[in-house]
UniProtKB/TrEMBL annotation:
Pathway: Carbohydrate degradation; glycolysis; D-glyceraldehyde 3-phosphate and glycerone phosphate from D-glucose: step 3/4. Homotetramer. Mg(2+) binds at residue 103. Keywords: Allosteric enzyme, ATP-binding, Cytoplasm, Glycolysis, Kinase, Magnesium, Metal-binding, Nucleotide-binding, Transferase. The lineage of its organism: Bacteria, Bacillati, Bacillota, Clostridia, Lachnospirales. Belongs to the phosphofructokinase type A (PFKA) family. ATP-dependent PFK group I subfamily. Prokaryotic clade 'B1' sub-subfamily. This is ATP-dependent 6-phosphofructokinase. The active site is at residue 127. HAMAP family: Phosphofructokinase_I_B1. Substrate binds at residues 125-127, 162, 169-171, 223, 244, 250-253. The keyword Oxidoreductase does not apply. It catalyses: beta-D-fructose 6-phosphate + ATP = beta-D-fructose 1,6-bisphosphate + ADP + H(+). It is found in: Cytoplasm. It comes from Suilimivivens aceti.
Length: 320
């Protein structure tokens, strides 16, 4: 392996820059050249490829977003496009590619590996929804950002004796909702993996809490359930208590990464650089049981994970 490329793909996540930085610096330390590919697979197809030196990633570890940019590229699902991308890599002398993104991005990496380009995936998503790893780059920053925002909403919610529904991101997964629900002491935590759509239970909960003298009622709702605004209308009508929905949205994807995100992204990025320089391909890096590990992409994509039952049960007990 003489030259590798690095790209970010799918949704951006805080810590991606720390991962890019680590890939660049560790590969160069291993004697391998690095090219940055802008805007994910789309940029690869448009040949938006730049040389990257150690200094090009100075002053980036603390920055949110991704310095390389990211994009969705639906046409990458076709064999024809994948072949073209592999040819572009060969034309630019890129023998290996580190892809920072989620499951969709790994499928693209798998396709490139089939066409002779060595690929390694790194888990970059705020949603924590990648089965082969207990940690994904961006999750820690996102939950801290959401937690701080929820604290603020809670203050005003208490002052006005309101019920607040706060919708957090996570796509179809409830990890952000679970963590914030526990960390913010929410009264109700709605997770796509668990929610039974019985709104009457929530309504009863609100009424009982109000009788017990609670001045606010915080409901953390996951993006995968959604419909927070209409839920608020129905709850207000049923309880007579002013109810407001706040959808936190993209603020959760931005901001300077936390120490944890910077650290994990750095170690994982370096790990990816090491194994790609060794000639490994079609692998994805993960963190399991206190160790950094790598899996075959096929195996990684076949793995499943869900909300740990004990954590969920505790969240319910504590949220009385
Ligand atoms: P996140 O879910 O965190 O945003 P992701 O990587 O799962 O990250 P996707 O939009 O699913 O996000 O995928 C990113 C890109 O990966 C797609 O735009 C496409 O270019 C490529 N991709 C997705 N699925 C496939 C596939 N089946 N085959 C080849 N490429 C794919």
């Amino acid at each position: 392996i003489k030259t590798i490329g690095v790209l970010t793909s799918g949704g951006d996540a805080p810590g991606m820059n720390a991962a890019i930085r680590a890939v660049v610096r560790k590969a160069i330390a291993n004697g391998v050249k690095v090219k940055g590919i802008k805007k994910g697979y789309k940029g690869l197809l448009n040949e938006e490829i730049i040389d990257m030196e150690k200094k090009d990633v100075s002053d980036t570890i603390e920055r949110g977003g991704t310095i390389l940019g990211t994009a969705r590229c639906p046409e990458f699902k076709t064999e024809e496009t994948q072949l073209k991308a592999a040819e572009i890599c060969q034309k630019h002398g890129i023998d290996g590619l580190v892809v920072i993104g989620g499951d969709g991005s790994y499928r693209g990496a798998q396709a490139l590996a089939r066409h002779g380009i060595n690929t390694i995936g790194l888990p970059g998503t705020i949603d924590l929804d990648i089965a082969c790893t207990e940690y994904t780059i961006g999750f820690d920053t996102a939950i801290n950002t959401a937690m701080q925002a929820i604290d603020k909403i809670r203050d005003t919610s208490s002052s006005h004796e309101r019920c607040s529904i706060i919708e957090v991101m996570g796509r179809n997964a409830g990890y952000i909702a679970l963590w914030c629900g526990v960390a913010n002491g929410a009264e109700d935590i709605l997770l796509p993996e668990k929610y039974d759509f019985n709104e009457q239970n929530i309504i009863n909960n609100i009424i009982n809490n109000r009788k017990r003298g609670k001045t606010h009622h915080i409901i953390i709702n996951a993006e995968g359930i959604g419909h927070s605004t209409s839920m608020a209308r129905r709850i207000e009508a049923a309880t007579g208590i002013e109810t407001r929905a706040t959808i936190l949205g993209y603020m959760q994807r931005g901001g300077s990464p936390t120490c944890k995100d910077r650290f994990y992204a750095s170690i994982m990025g370096a790990y990816a650089a090491d194994i790609i320089c060794e000639g490994k391909s079609n692998r994805v890096v993960g963190y399991q049981h206190g160790e950094f590990v790598d899996f075959d992409i096929e195996d990684a994509l076949a793995m499943q994970k869900t909300i740990p039952e004990y954590q969920y049960q505790v969240s319910r007990i504590l949220s009385l």
